[in-house]
Write a structure and sequence with these properties.
Porin
């Protein structure tokens, strides 16, 4: 499994943060687009090449996002109504995906055809918190990281909680 980390983010104009590998080296950068209706994030590699784009769909009862990879729609993520467990449906031409999480949205499993391929854990320390992301070998890490960006936008951004 490949391991990535997203550290604690502090408020800034236009949210921007790095994604690190196991050696604490920045490998990806996420930038929020300013002055838009709905949340929009772009994922870049360390060379500045845009790899993915996440866009919130507006005027929905429950949160819905689209993921674009190489300017092509790769998935539509829809939050399902549920009381105790965080659940999403992910429509994609590359297979059936599910996102299942705990009550506090700190631990998630991302499944493809009922096989876990990505795990997300929010770890807490005295001074900060951070996500630990484990992606199974052979699975698209960019797609997985875009899914984690959606999770963070829906559950840990005060403007999008439901």
């Amino acid at each position: 499994m490949k391991k990535f980390y997203i550290g604690e983010r502090f408020f800034s104009i236009g949210d921007s943060f790095d994604i690190f590998d196991e050696g604490n080296n920045p490998v990806y950068r996420v930038k929020e687009k300013l002055l838009t209706l709905g949340k929009q994030y772009s994922l870049f590699n360390h060379k500045g090449q845009k790899l993915g784009f996440v866009k919130q769909k507006l005027f929905r009862f429950l949160p819905q996002y689209e993921i674009y990879l190489n300017d092509r729609l790769a998935a539509i993520i829809k939050k399902r109504f549920s009381f105790f467990v965080k659940k999403f449906d992910i429509e994609s031409e590359s297979g059936n995906y599910k996102l299942d999480g705990d009550l506090l949205a700190w631990n998630f499993k991302i499944l493809k055809d009922d096989q876990v391929f990505c795990q997300v854990h929010k770890n807490f320390t005295i001074f900060k918190d951070r996500y630990e992301i484990l992606v199974s070998e052979g699975f698209d890490e960019v797609f997985s990281l875009c899914l984690v960006i959606v999770l963070d936008a829906v559950f840990h951004d005060k403007k999008h909680r439901r």
